[in-house]
Amino acid sequence: MSKLLFKRIPALALIITMLIGFKANGQTGDFKVLVVASRAKDHLKSISEAKPFFEKLGADNHFSVYFTDDTSKINDGDLAKYQVFVMFHLAPFDMSASQQAALQKFAEQGKGWVGIHAAGLTGKEFLGPNPKLPYWQWFEGFMGGVSYSPHPAYQDGIVVVEDRSHPATKNLPAKFWMSDEWYEFNKSPRGNVRVLATADESTYKQNKPMGDHPIIWTNEEFHRMIYIGVGHSPTALTNPSYIILLRDAILWAASK
User: Fold this and answer.
1) Is 176 helix (H, G, I), strand (E, B) or coil?
2) Distance CA 72, CA 234 (A)
3) Which of 72, 124, 165, 229 has the greatest count of CB atoms below 10 A from its CB?
4) Per-residue pLDDT averaged across 104-115, rounded?
5) For 82-108, what is each residue's pLDDT tens digit?
6) What is the CATH number of the domain that holds 87?
7) How many CB atoms lie within 10 A of CB 23?
8) Is 106 helix (H, G, I), strand (E, B) or coil?
9) What global pTM score does this model have?
10) Which residues of 55-89 are buried (b: 16+ CB within 10 A; e: fewer)?
11) Angle between helices 240-254 and 44-61 (to 10 degrees)
């Protein structure tokens, strides 16, 4: 089957699913989502498209969204207003020590965390603009004990949905195409996390093949944590499968 056909065949069914407003997990009540975006230049195109995207996603699925790139909103008082915190390309090292502590408290209370793409930039080589800030070891454990490695070139590839019993992935096709950077890590987090989907390394050129390459996972030590490694480009926000993934991830993260 050609790549074009592979992309188009599931699209109609996925769009229909979105249009009828399917509510995953039985979560139909109103709740509040805080989306904090990065200010990194390599993600500005995606971030410029993200505010209207998340606001529409919320309006269509009965939750409200506050979208900002102001990390000062990551504090105990503000986070207490929200059921879900989305880190949209915001790297952990771009947060102050007090902001890191507030997020840690939020996650340990069992509230919802959805980390997208650069939210997974773990590793001591990524200490960010403040080299005096101690390395946030807790977050590396939160991510399943892995450290980020340099990614390969931006290119097309396939996401393989490994676990279709999870509420965040049960409405996805078995496989779907995306264009992305295909983040790599020093090792597979499998064994420390519940793997929901992997990158099919046979469909693109890796920087350093991982073999077992999880790309979406949850850490079940925390009740409502999900990391989505793909999503670099604004084109992801028009990909029907990716839209369903973000919708269902947020609805699951808000559920009790």
Assistant:
1) strand
2) 25
3) 229
4) 97
5) 999 999 999 999 999 999 999 999 999
6) 3.40.50.880
7) 14
8) helix
9) 0.88
10) eebbeebebebbbebebebbbeebbeebbbbbbbb
11) 60
Query: What pLDDT, in 10s, does the model give residues 158-203?
Result: 999 999 999 999 999 999 999 999 999 999 999 999 999 999 999 9
H helix runs in the chain, sequence order: 3-8, 11-19, 44-61, 76-79, 97-108, 137-142, 240-254
Distances (CA, A) of 174 to 87, 162, 164, 214, 241: 26, 8, 8, 15, 10
Query: Which position has the token pair 């975006």?
Result: 37
How far apart CA 135 and CA 124 sit, in angstroms, is: 6
- Residue ranges making up the domain that contains 130: 3-254
> Which amino acid, 95?
M
- 131-139: which pairs have CB atoms within 8 A and are 24 or more residues apart? 133/93, 133/96, 133/97, 134/97, 136/92, 136/93, 136/100, 138/100, 138/104, 139/92, 139/100, 139/104
Please count the structural domains in the chain: 1
∠ CA 172-145-36, nearest 5°, is 60
**Which residues fall within 8 angstroms of residue 118, CB to CB, at 6 or more apart?**
38, 40, 43, 89, 90, 91
Asked if residue 144 lies in contact with residue 225, where contact means CB atoms within 8 angstroms, the answer is no
Q: CA neighbours within 13 Å on the CB side: how many for 151? A: 18
Record the tokens describing residue 149, joined without a space.
């490695």
CA distance to 29, 34, 38, 78, 92, per residue, from 70 (Å): 27, 11, 9, 12, 14
In this structure, are residues 120 and 216 in contact, taking their beta carbons and an 8 Å threshold? no
